[in-house]
Each structure stands twice: as structure tokens, then as C-alpha cells.
């Protein structure tokens, strides 16, 4: 009997009844329509998303446990379509952030295993995206990364190291392209989420 429960636990790893219900409720709404309605429904189901944030499409979320508690989003953000968030670890997104289409935020890394099976144990690390950031289309942010306030990540970039505030990075792996003029000043994330 224990073996059956182990198999069921493995097979149902990605099943989250709360997330499934959200997806069923929002399924009839086409992309680019009802962006703030999506956020209101997510908030009703326990997600922490600030005022004025809009999602043009529902992101794909994966992770274990109560992953709705691992995602925090500030106010006045805009999420384009087909984003992918791996919530093995927490993701914190400040206010006034724009996330382009098909952006991937990956918190779940793995240690390197033995020669017979190189995929080692899961080692999740958080992602922090500070206020005023713009993540370009199809960029990928890897585990443990902080994107500084007012930074821009170019389309298609793969971010493997922290990004300094008010900089433009791009490429694979992402490298500094240039410093940006001005600086972003915003309230603390706690104030944004109120």
C-alpha cells in the first residue's frame, strides 16, 4: 500500500486544486482581455498581487506545496502572455514591472549528481525583481538572481548573474550593454502591496 501512495504522490506532484480552479474559472477569457479580472480572481484564491496589476494571459505556474504563497507581485505591473514561473522557490516582483511575452523565471536548480544519474537533488533559490524593471520577450532568469531597480533585460537574454540597478543587459549569458540614465525611486514593496 505504501508503494501505491508513493506512486500517487509522484504522479500528482503538479496537481494544485486551487490553481486548477483558477484556470477553469479564467479559461473562457481570451488573451489580452480581462487582465485585471485575472488578478482579482488570483487574489481571491490567495495569491498576493498589488493593485492595478494586469495579466494579459494567465502565466504557467509549476512548483510544489502551497505555491500561491511563493509568488508576490507589486502594484501597477503588466504581464504579457505565455510567461512561465517555476515556484520551487519564492519569486518576488516589485511594483511597476513589465514582463514581456514568454518570459521564464526559474527558481528550481539541481545539484550535479553521480555519473550514473547527473540530475542531483533539487536546490531552489529565490528570484527578486525590484521596482521599475522591464523584462524583454523570451528572456530567462535563473535561480538566485536579483534584477536591480530600473534595470532592463533585453529580449532573449539568459540572466545567470545579478543585474545592477538602472542597467541594460542582454545576450547569452546576459552581459552589461550600458548604464541607463536616471534612477528609479519607489516605495518599499510592503507599501506597494497595501
In short:
By secondary structure, the chain is α/β, with parallel strands linked by helices. It has helices at residues 2-11, 17-26, 35-44, 189-193, and strands at 48-49, 54-55, 60-62, 71-73, 78-79, 84-86, 91-93, 98-99, 104-106, 108-114, 117-124, 127-129, 134-135, 140-141, 146-147, 152-153, 158-159, 167-170, 175-179. It contains four helices and 19 strands.
Helices and strands, with pairings:
Elements: H1 2-11, H2 17-26, H3 35-44, E1 48-49, E2 54-55, E3 60-62, E4 71-73, E5 78-79, E6 84-86, E7 91-93, E8 98-99, E9 104-106, E10 108-114, E11 117-124, E12 127-129, E13 134-135, E14 140-141, E15 146-147, E16 152-153, E17 158-159, E18 167-170, E19 175-179, H4 189-193
Parallel strand pairs: 1-4, 2-5, 3-6, 4-7, 5-8, 6-9, 7-12, 8-13, 9-14, 12-15, 13-16, 14-17, 16-18
Antiparallel strand pairs: 10-11, 18-19
The pLDDT mean sits at 90
Broad CATH class: Mainly Beta
The CATH homologous superfamily corresponds to: Hexapeptide repeat proteins
DSSP helical segment count: 4
Name the poorly predicted regions: none
Strand content: 25-35%
β-strand number? 19
Shape: globular
Annotated CATH topology: UDP N-Acetylglucosamine Acyltransferase, domain 1
Task: Summarize the structure in words.
The protein starts with a helix and ends with a helix. The strands form four sheets. Strands 2-5-8-13-16-18-19 form a seven-stranded mixed sheet. A five-stranded parallel sheet has the order 1-4-7-12-15, with helices on one face. The protein has a single domain (about 40-180), classed as Hexapeptide repeat proteins (UDP N-Acetylglucosamine Acyltransferase, domain 1, 3 Solenoid), CATH 2.160.10.10. It has about 190 residues and is an alpha/beta fold. It has helices at about 1-10, 15-25, 35-45, 190-194; strands at about 50, 55, 60, 70-75, 80, 85, 90-95, 100, 105, 110-115, 115-125, 125-130, 135, 140, 145, 150-155, 160, 165-170, 175-180.
Amino acid at each position: 500500500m505504501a508503494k501505491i501512495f508513493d506512486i500517487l504522490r509522484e504522479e500528482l506532484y503538479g496537481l494544485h486544486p486551487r490553481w486548477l480552479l483558477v484556470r477553469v474559472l479564467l479559461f473562457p477569457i481570451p488573451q489580452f482581455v480581462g487582465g485585471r479580472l485575472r488578478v482579482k480572481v488570483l487574489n481571491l484564491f490567495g495569491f498576493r498581487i498589488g493593485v492595478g496589476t494586469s495579466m494579459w494571459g494567465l502565466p504557467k505556474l509549476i512548483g510544489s506545496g502551497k505555491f500561491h504563497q511563493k509568488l508576490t507581485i507589486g502594484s501597477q505591473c503588466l504581464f504579457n502572455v505565455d510567461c512561465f514561473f517555476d515556484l520551487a522557490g519564492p519569486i518576488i516582483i516589485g511594483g511597476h514591472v513589465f514582463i514581456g511575452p514568454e518570459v521564464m523565471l526559474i527558481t528550481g536548480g539541481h545539484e550535479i549528481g553521480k555519473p550514473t544519474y547527473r540530475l542531483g537533488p533539487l536546490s531552489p533559490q529565490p528570484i527578486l525583481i525590484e521596482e521599475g524593471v522591464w523584462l524583454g520577450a523570451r528572456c530567462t532568469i535563473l535561480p538566485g538572481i536579483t534584477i536591480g531597480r530600473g534595470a532592463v533585460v533585453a529580449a532573449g537574454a539568459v540572466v545567470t548573474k545579478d543585474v545592477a540597478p538602472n542597467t541594460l543587459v542582454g545576450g547569452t549569458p546576459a552581459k552589461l550593454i550600458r548604464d541607463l540614465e536616471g534612477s528609479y525611486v519607489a516605495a518599499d514593496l510592503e507599501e506597494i502591496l497595501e
